[in-house]
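Before relying on records like the one below, remember that each one covers exactly one chain. Contacts with other chains, cofactors or solvent are not represented anywhere in the record.
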Amino acid sequence: MDARSWWREFPGAVTVCDRAGVILEMNESARRVFASDGGAALIGKNALDCHPEPARTRLRGLLAEGRSNVYTIEKRGVRKLIYQAPWFESGVYAGFVELSLEIPAAMPHFVRG
């Protein structure tokens, strides 16, 4: 296994953008999730163009500030955790990664300490 390719078949959707919001990579799951929006054809397009307001303004802020954004959604009865976080190359902010993971309606929560 190529240690750099694990994410390609990862069961959650992984989308990678540069600092301007241009989509650089999408794994197979992300391509399926966003198939109705163009799937793999979204690579090279700007993610800002894929979001309506107020999400576009929020995304623009994430890109400019290099900060994380985490929330849950429910769409067509499927709950998801959306985790957007900056990524770095040689210590320099390079853009953000969005993980979209399906989660069950109820799941255990553990407090460890």
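The two ends are 35 Å apart (CA to CA).
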